[in-house]
């Protein structure tokens, strides 16, 4: 699915940003919403209601008087949620960044300028972007039925999810390399001996105790998965984040001497803006 996925620049939208008749002050509301997010503050539907109450109290009173208070409030929330979607907002889990968006934009621009100044003569097929993405599975339910008055405790073995890590690489020309899956288990153990040989062909699989990238797995990926995909007799550059095993002396030496590549590490704490694979691979 990942290898066959295609990105279509001109995607159709379910709706357009047409004038919202139900909210006559819609443009003011959009400005408030964008200003709040520009300051990197949390924007909720409740805050939208509070803003309307402060600046358009008459409209709010008229809207709330059309039916019972509970029904009117629920209707208002749905209206504002549709309004937000229609104007390009989606609900996301808030995340904390060490840098503000303005600073990240500057870092992104500076990195892009430095990168293309150095590698402007490289062909698109010689520029490779690598990133790891953790995938959680076997997620435990958030709730359980319990008898009234009895405990809701569960065995600790049922409270933990499991995960694997997918190492994704894409060239600048859009070609996707086979994925390396890092599976949770003990190297040399039952999973590696009995399960991995049964996994679908066409990709690479390794076992690691935390199902995460380390220096051993990274070296394996460079030599066994990445090197065979490089164009022979042509220089290449690998873009990766600042994970310790990526930028270690051993890693740089392997990339330079055995792969004949350059390593272009991304600026620290900036993958949200400089690493498309950090979010884009799972956005569609």
From TrEMBL:
Q: Which InterPro entries match?
A: CenT-Element_Derived, DDE_SF_endonuclease_dom, RNaseH_sf
Q: Which residues form the DDE-1 domain?
A: 162-282
Q: Which GO terms describe its cellular component?
A: nucleus
* Record GO terms (molecular function): DNA binding
Specify the superkingdom: Eukaryota
Record-given protein name:
DDE-1 domain-containing protein
Source organism = Achlya hypogyna (Oomycete)
Kindly list the organism's lineage.
Eukaryota, Sar, Stramenopiles, Oomycota, Saprolegniomycetes
